[in-house]
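Quick start: read one record
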Amino acid sequence: MTPEDSCVNRRQQPLVLAVEDNEDNLLVINYVIESLDYRFIGETNGVRTLEIAKQYQPDLILMDILLTDVNGIDIFYQLQQDPLTSFIPVVAVTALAMTEDWQRIQKAGFHGYIIKPYMLEELENVIIQHLEPIRISPQSKVAIHHDA
């Protein structure tokens, strides 16, 4: 049996890390992500975000901006400075709806923005926009070695 014969290609569902200090909002995000058949990690502690992102390498991060323990923009900058996480798209999820807020988030370099309260369809669309290319990409196949 060759190594190629002992490997099986399978498609790994995209992984979304949601950083949100409100448990109810986190449950809603979890519902939407699971309904799209994606994998989910929820985190209420903004300080742990960089560690979790390095460990799990999510395909998308949904970042609350007004976290109780840290500013989401500051976490975004940390993610962008680390070579292990700088390539991960980050979408701002916030109640900040003023034009200045949007400009500040856009200037920071976020890959998207959604305003709370949002409709479930809006959240779905933002997630799909960032993850559908991953789901259908040939690079999303993972070789798994099976011991004989």
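Residues 1-10, 136-148 have pLDDT under 50 and may be disordered.
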